[in-house]
Amino acid sequence: MLSQSVENFLKAIYDLQKGDQWVATSALAERLKQKPASATNMVQRLARTEGQLVEYVPYQGVRLTDTGTKVALEIIRHHRLIELYLTQALGLPWDRVHDEAEKLEHVISEELEDRMAAALTDTRFDPHGSPIPTKDGHIKKNDAILLADVPVEASVRIVEVHDHDARLLRYLGDLGLYPGAAFTVIGREPFSHALQIQFGDRRLHLGEDALAHIWVTITISAVPVAGTPAQELP
Ligand SMILES: [Zn+2]
């Protein structure tokens, strides 16, 4: 049995790690809202003791071993499955489930996990659009780009929304901007990074904070040259 703080460490490293690259302990400390020195201590302790979950190289950083990755994916499966169960089976709104899942992910049994999964019809994605790892530890990461990086005139579909900011989720939910929602980027506000979008018959403005937490897939790319028809993507 791993402690809750060890599980949160592994989850944070998984989040920050791109492929098999090293994660700087300073970045990890920032993510976990800890002092750099205490994050480094924890990493050193983990690398030495807890059954080889992480590799640590001073001045290089930390990364998960195969065992550590498996454990991280197991916690992420718990987290996302709980979020899905709370919305689908218990009717909680999508902005209220993350905080509950942060607590419950550490304590549910394998049996409860299996029963929650069995009670749901589709367990591929959580309510925020994040892929749920399979029981045997596989995850198919979303192929998506940040809305902030989408060119004007492109049509997009929301793939995933970052789950940490309840206020943003409530705001987007009120507008109907859930995963699966489709809209067109029609303009960029001068002197800011805000975007104007056309969503159904509504014209909306999305500020910088929102754009940095929404991942989309482009369904119709922007017209590259005036007069060339927009290209339809599969
Ligand atoms: Zn969450």
Word description of this protein:
The chain is of the alpha+beta class and 234 residues long. Among the domains are: 4-64, Winged helix-like DNA-binding domain superfamily/Winged helix DNA-binding domain (Arc Repressor Mutant, subunit A), CATH 1.10.10.10; 145-220, SH3 type barrels. The chain has helices at 4-16, 25-31, 36-48, 66-88, 97-104, 110-119, 166-175, 208-211, and strands at 54-57, 61-64, 145-146, 155-161, 182-188, 195-199, 202-206, 214-220. The strands form two sheets. The chain has a six-stranded antiparallel β-sheet. Helix 4 (66-88) crosses helix 5 and helix 4 crosses helix 6 (110-119). It is globular. The mean pLDDT is 91. It binds zinc ion.
Short description:
The chain has 8 helices and 8 strands; from the N terminus they run αααββαααββαβββαβ. A hairpin with a 2-residue loop joins β6 and β7.
